[in-house]
């Protein structure tokens, strides 16, 4: 489906760099968020790279149910949990979960990115929910393509955002430890 022979367009040499920046056949950047990774390539190369070099969790299926735990939830630091990749409808999706500051307020954010083009990503939708103590927060959207950097998606706040006090409330207990259960599903739009 997304395996192709590449770009066949012909350009004068001076317009080639501009074309390469936006060509739909250009290589993808590694979607791993923990550190800046310089690996680029097609989707199959990136899948091997994520498994072998980043030891990313790979799952088959279109639903997920994850727990995110942090023993000292009082620390205000940018933290990124391990990336999880889902193989669903024969395509790959990256689930991101992290904490950062919006202004002075610490938040947690969960979002999904699609390993393919922006147009292909629009064929899918997803929902993510987090809850506890009789409450539930749900986000529904279209996954962003990995063409959009992890930072760009995060900065646009295009995902489930949970204020820290609400995350601690969902976690129960003494409100010192983060224990979030994040679940969701991916489906193909008709």
Automatic annotation (TrEMBL):
<dbReference type="Pfam" id="PF03145">
    <property type="entry name" value="Sina_TRAF"/>
</dbReference>
<dbReference type="Pfam" id="PF21361">
    <property type="entry name" value="Sina_ZnF"/>
</dbReference>
<feature type="domain" description="SIAH-type">
    <location>
        <begin position="1"/>
        <end position="55"/>
    </location>
</feature>
<dbReference type="InterPro" id="IPR008974">
    <property type="entry name" value="TRAF-like"/>
</dbReference>
<keyword id="KW-0479">Metal-binding</keyword>
<dbReference type="InterPro" id="IPR018121">
    <property type="entry name" value="7-in-absentia-prot_TRAF-dom"/>
</dbReference>
<dbReference type="InterPro" id="IPR013010">
    <property type="entry name" value="Znf_SIAH"/>
</dbReference>
<comment type="similarity">
    <text>Belongs to the SINA (Seven in absentia) family.</text>
</comment>
<keyword id="KW-0862">Zinc</keyword>
<dbReference type="InterPro" id="IPR013083">
    <property type="entry name" value="Znf_RING/FYVE/PHD"/>
</dbReference>
<protein>
    <recommendedName>
        <fullName>SIAH-type domain-containing protein</fullName>
    </recommendedName>
</protein>
<keyword id="KW-0863">Zinc-finger</keyword>
<dbReference type="InterPro" id="IPR052088">
    <property type="entry name" value="E3_ubiquitin-ligase_SINA"/>
</dbReference>
């Amino acid at each position: 489906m997304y395996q192709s022979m590449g770009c066949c367009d012909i350009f004068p040499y001076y317009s080639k760099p501009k074309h390469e920046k936006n060509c739909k056949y250009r290589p993808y950047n590694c979607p791993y968020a923990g550190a800046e990774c310089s690996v680029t390539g097609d989707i199959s190369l990136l899948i091997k790279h994520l498994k072998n070099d980043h030891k990313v969790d790979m799952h088959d299926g279109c639903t997920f149910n994850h727990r995110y735990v942090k023993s000292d939830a009082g620390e205000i630091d940018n933290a990124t949990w391990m990336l999880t990749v889902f193989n669903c409808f024969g395509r790959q999706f990256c689930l991101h979960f992290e904490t950062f500051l919006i202004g002075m307020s610490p938040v947690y954010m969960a979002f999904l990115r699609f390993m393919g083009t922006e147009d292909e990503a629009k064929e899918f939708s997803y929902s993510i929910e987090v809850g506890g103590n009789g409450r539930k927060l749900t986000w529904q959207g279209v996954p962003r393509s990995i063409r959009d950097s992890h930072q760009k998606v995060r900065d646009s706040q295009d995902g489930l955002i949970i204020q820290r006090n609400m995350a601690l409330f969902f976690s129960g207990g003494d409100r010192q430890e983060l224990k979030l259960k994040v679940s969701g599903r991916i489906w193909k739009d008709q």
